[in-house]
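Listing S7. Sequence submitted for prediction.
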Amino acid sequence: MTRYLVVANQTLEAEPLLERVRACAREGDCRFHLVVPATHPRGVWTEGKVRADAQQRLDEALARFREIGVAVDGEVGDTSPVLAVKDAMLAHTFDAIIVSTLPPGVSRWLRQDLPHRLERISGLPVIHVTEALQDA
């Protein structure tokens, strides 16, 4: 069985990520573990509110992944996506990481070079999925 670590926040239920998950499931027996970093939004926030918002996004994403028929579990992680991944890797074994981001120019994670950083720290293949901007 192939185990995928999925790291996402704002794009948790975006169609490009869901399509990648479906494609992985078509390739064979697999399981997904979602990590939602408890990222601090711009402006005023409290730690409790940040974690509650991340938990709500995680719960909604878990339900959506189950609707498409995949085995999935997950957790709210550290505010840093790198630390969130490191923590998940201490508790679980994975075969690959799927990182879902907003598009270049918008994504803080891409400005931080997150996909390449995760590849270096994990030694695992990293699949990068990007959400397209919607025309207004």
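Caption to Listing S7: primary sequence and predicted structure tokens for the chain studied. The mean pLDDT is 92. The chain is about 45% helix and 25% strand.
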